[in-house]
Amino acid sequence: MLTTMMIVFLALMLIGHPVGFAMAVSSVIALAVNSPIPLSIVPQKMAGGLDNFTILAVPFFLLAGELMEAGGLTTRLVRFATCLVGHLKGGMMHVSILASLIFAGISGSAVADASAIGTITIRAMIKKGYDPAYVAAVQAGAAAIGPIFPPSITMIVWASMTSLSVAAMFLGGVIPGILIALGLMIYNHVYSVRAGYGREARVRLRELLETTLNALPALLMPLIVLGGIVTGVFTATEAGCVAAIYAALAGGAIYRELKFKDLEGVFLRATASGSMVMLIIAASTTFGWVLAVEQFPDLVVGWLLKLTASPALVLALLMVFLLFIGCFIDVLPAAIILIPVLDPIAAKYGFDPIHFAVLMCITLTVGLITPPVGVVLYITTNLAGVTLAESSRKVILPAIVMVIVCVMCAYIPDLITAIPKWLLPKAFFRG
Question: What domain range includes position 24?
Answer without folding.
Answer: 1-39
